[in-house]
Amino acid sequence: MPPGFVFLPFALYRTMQRLLLLCFLLYFLPPLQAQGIRMAAEDTLVQLKEVEIKASSFRRSDHGARLFTLDNSAIALLSSSSLAGRLDREAPLFIKSYGPGRLSPLALRGTGAAHTAVMWNGLALNSPMLGLYDFSLLPGFLLGEVSIQSGGNGPLAGSGAVGGAIFMEPVFDTVQGHHITLLGGGGSFGEMQTGAGYRYTNGKVTTQTRVYRQQAGNNFRFTGLNGEQMRQQHAFFHQMGLSHDTRLGNAAHHLDLHAWFLENYREIPPLMVSRHSEQMQEDASLRLAAKWGRRFRNAETHVRAGMVREHIRYTDPVAGIDDNSTAYTYQADAGIRISLSKQMRLEAEAGWTEARARVEQYPEGAQLRQQTLTLKAGWEERRWNSYVALREGFFTGEALPFLPTARSGRRGAQPAGADARAAA
Q1: How does DSSP assign 161-198, residue by residue?
Q2: What percent of the chain has pLDDT over 70?
Q3: Confidence of residue 165 (pLDDT cuts 50, 70, 90)
Q4: pTM, full prediction
Q5: Model confidence pLDDT, tens digit, residues 59-114
Q6: Which residue among 38, 208, 216, 374 has its CA within the 20 to 30 Å range from the CA of 198?
Q7: Lowest mean pLDDT: which of 104-108, 209-213, 326-330?
Q8: Between 2 and 362, residue with greater pLDDT
Q9: Which helix (DSSP H) or strand (DSSP E) does residue 20 occupy?
Q10: What percentage of the chain has pLDDT greater than the value 90?
Q11: What is the chain's percent helix, strand, coil content, to nearest 5?
């Protein structure tokens, strides 16, 4: 019998004992450790709120158009009291601002203030009496998403959009429950702003309401024509507004209702060559809009309608002037977008606009009507994009110049193309 043969069963027994112990530890130790980790983490476990990320293949700008979206965070809303201040801080454009509540026109791509269309939920806010809009009258707290579009297809947004277009739309949050927002701020020369907002979402209905108030004395010091130190007089500004948005349904099938009321009062300061002024201006506007939208697998359609009422009162007791001007604008449009393939999509939109204005010096008033039809075809590949658009319109019964646009270019490069533009 070879040496060590007698001790072989005992050594095998010890080996099997160790294997069984190892299997026991591998089987029972992980659940015990996981249970201990779970019990230790129960006291410090933080449940994060649900975040829903959505993307639509239709929500993108055409090639050749530059789309810039402002920061929609709470810090950005607090940094500036009006849209003019936010555009001046964040957007690559030029704002002529003369202080809180003062006139703030916009210049985009070297064009004038009347060459930029201002769109609120698809409705044009450009005054039919002036053709432009004062951005100091738009409180940033009442706005949702703000986008600036410039490029070769700017005129396709409508008449008066040769320089580009600014789109303002509400943001419907999908986090369910009740939410309250409070705003408070102040600054030099009597500036003060307050606001409050409420939002409720239950998955089927989303409603949000915001109120805002701002005032400023604007009694700052400046240097006169002869080098003397002077303080601004008669430059008080007061503004209050309310906005409401309701969505019935979801992003795929919804009915949106929007309302916005804004009232402004401002004193017009004297010129530097004069020392006294009693001129005042009051602006009041009411905007209502409704939109029905439906999204399918390869198509999207919408029908939209709304109205805008503007009232301006200008008084100058010294000259005995008390003028009132009122303008009504009614708008409606319908459109459809179809994706024929991953590369090709077609769009069609028809719009109707009617504006009426009345000034005391012209009792008969003025009225205009405009109908437009836009057709667009786009081809998008991985490295190359192209589109062709056609726009025809009728202004008070007369045909507007035919507006074709064609553009093609490579992604990330300056596109090359040909444009034919006209503006009414």
Answers
A1: -SSEEEEEE-------EEEEEEEEEE-STT-EEEEEEE
A2: 73
A3: confident
A4: 0.76
A5: 444 544 567 787 766 555 555 567 777 777 777 777 766 656 566 767 677 776 67
A6: 216
A7: 104-108
A8: 362
A9: helix 8-41
A10: 25
A11: 15, 50, 35
Gap between the Cα atoms of 374 and 157, Å rounded:
10
Please tell me whether residue 17 adopts helix, strand or coil conformation.
helix
- Which of 132, 136, 137 has the alpha carbon at shortest distance from 99? 136
For the chain, report the end-to-end CA distance as a whole number of angstroms. Answer: 115
**Pair 302, 334: CB distance under 8 Å:** yes
Alpha-helical segments (H) within 349-402: none
| Residue 276: partners with Cβ closer than 8 Å, 6 or more residues away | 233, 234, 270, 318
Contact 252, 54 (CB under 8 A): no
Residue 96 and residue 147: Cα distance in Å, rounded?
Answer: 19
Give the residue-averaged pLDDT of 368-377.
90
Rounded distance between C-alpha atoms, residue 127 and residue 152, angstroms: 24
The pair of structure tokens assigned to 393 is 């319109």
Helix H or strand E segment including 339: strand 321-339
Task: List Cα–Cα distances, 174 to 69, 244, 254, in angstroms.
Answer: 20, 17, 14
pLDDT class of 26 with cuts at 50, 70, 90: low
User: For residue 389, what are its two tokens?
Assistant: 């658009």
Tokens of 395: 């202004």
Residue 413, amino acid:
A
Q: Are 384 and 408 in contact (CB under 8 A)?
A: yes
The pLDDT value given to residue 419: 41
Radius of gyration of the chain (CA): 31
Burial zone of 395 (CB within 10 Å; 0-12 exposed, 13-18 middle, 19+ buried): middle
Statement: residue 264 has pLDDT above 60: yes
Integer CA distances (angstroms), 255 to 121, 122, 181, 303, 330, in order: 13, 14, 25, 10, 19
Per-residue CA distances from 39 to 17, 42, 45 (Å): 33, 5, 10
Q: CA 325 to CA 403: how far, in whole Å?
A: 33
User: What is the per-residue pLDDT for 305?
Assistant: 95
Matching residue, tokens 């100091």? 136
Q: Are 254 and 247 in contact (CB under 8 A)?
A: yes
Q: How confident is the model at residue 295 (pLDDT cuts 50, 70, 90)?
A: very high
From CA 81, how far away is CA 96, in angstroms rounded?
16
Tokens of 98: 């003369």
If you search the block for the tokens 């056609």, which residue do you land on? 390
Beta bridge partners of 308: 287, 329
Mean pLDDT score, 203-212: 92
